[in-house]
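We include the entry.

. . .
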Amino acid sequence: MTTTVLHRKLSGTVVSNKMTKTVVVRVDRKISHPKYKKQYISSKKYHAHDEKGEYQVGDKVWIQATRPMSATKRWKVISKA
């Protein structure tokens, strides 16, 4: 029996491309406060692998979880959103 592995995918915005073959992607999430029910935006930055260096600051991209490629890089860029 074959099992397909579903890799986690996130959508975000490229905020830095100064490293070689790496981009920093900011992923925003809308969170509701447990007591006051006010919604606010929380964000987190991920280092993602960009083999060809084709993504620029401001691009909306999809990233996918992958094997660890360095100390901080565990995501790769799939495509533009």
Observations:
- The mean pLDDT is 94.
- The first strand starts at residue 9 and ends at 19.
- Strands lie at 9-19, 22-32, 39-49, 60-65, 73-80.
- The radius of gyration is 15 Å.
